[in-house]
Amino acid sequence: MITEDLNLFLSNLNVFYRKLQNYHWNIKGEDFFNVHAKLEELYDDINEQIDEVAEHILIIDGQPLGTMSDYLEITQIKEAQNEKICSKKIFETILKDYCILSENATKVKEDADNEKKYATSALMDEYLSDYGKKIWMIRQYLMQ
Ligand SMILES: [Fe+2]
Predict the structure, then answer these.
(1) Architecture of 2-75+83-142 per CATH?
(2) How far is the CA of 17 from the centre of ligand 1 (A)?
(3) SS3 for the chain, per residue?
(4) Could you tell me the residue ranges of all domains in the chain?
(5) What separation in Å is there between the alpha carbon of 38 and the centre of ligand 1?
(6) How many angstroms does the Cα of residue 36 sit away from the middle of ligand 1?
(7) Which of 31, 58, 61, 127 has the most CB atoms lying inside 10 A of its own CB?
(8) How far is the CA of 62 from the centre of ligand 1 (A)?
(9) pTM for the model
């Protein structure tokens, strides 16, 4: 079901938002200033996507999940701990998280295409190129 897949995606986005801001607060090390600012940029993007996905669920006559307990029940993204963390560990973790989000968007797109819901499919295209670019950049960052 597209709405169920979108709600899973929405849950992952919400947990990921909290995780990115947690990292923004707890980043330590010599590249603090760059990464602190970059993380804010990343969670701002995710925040926009949260609103778009929830509203899209309503547009297609579904009901978006709206509580943290709903999100935590089904999320595939693991929360971050309350502890200082270096940028390498942050990017290794969020690389995997972006891959999960990309898989979510792919699944929604495949189902949407099968059901001829092309607006949903087109929305997923935006996310797939966004995540694709971020995954590429994070891999470049992690390269030695
Ligand atoms: Fe801040």
Answers:
(1) Up-down Bundle (1.20)
(2) 13
(3) CHHHHHHHHHHHHHHHHHHHHHHHHHEECCCHHHHHHHHHHHHHHHHHHHHHHHHHHHHCCCCCCCCHHHHHHHCCCCCCCCCCEEHHHHHHHHHHHHHHHHHHHHHHHHHHHHCCCHHHHHHHHHHHHHHHHHHHHHHHHHCC
(4) 2-75+83-142
(5) 11
(6) 8
(7) 127
(8) 34
(9) 0.97
